[in-house]
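Quick one, tokens below:
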């Protein structure tokens, strides 16, 4: 079973949490949001526990992968943190709003051999 951490308890966080809950081979372990009540509400509905300190995800050796549904300005630091903690990451689009941030990410990931996927579900949506 893959154990997940989820960053962001907003609309897209709910979409991903529901998907995880429907997969018998996945479990939602930790939900991070800056608003404790939002993290707790999502965790209560789909599993895991709500936290306001993202280190609860990065420092947790039981978490295999993360889904990054945080605001766009946090995507780059969250992808870097996932890579440094050895967790696979699925990040919502866009990776960043500025090309310089994407270049910063590329530099930060050098030598880490991360597993990172960017979500863009509308590409193939008829």
């Amino acid at each position: 079973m893959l154990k997940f951490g989820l960053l962001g308890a907003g609309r897209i966080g709910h979409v991903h949490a529901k998907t995880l809950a429907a997969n018998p081979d996945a479990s939602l372990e930790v939900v991070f949001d800056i608003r404790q009540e939002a993290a707790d509400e999502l965790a209560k509905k789909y599993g895991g526990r709500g936290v306001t300190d993202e280190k609860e995800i990065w420092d947790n050796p039981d978490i295999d992968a993360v889904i990054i549904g945080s605001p766009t300005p946090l995507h780059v630091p969250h992808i870097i943190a996932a890579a440094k903690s050895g967790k696979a990451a699925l990040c919502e689009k866009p990776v960043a709003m500025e090309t310089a941030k994407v270049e910063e990410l590329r530099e930060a990931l050098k030598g880490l051999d991360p597993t990172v996927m960017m979500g863009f579900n509308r590409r193939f949506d008829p």
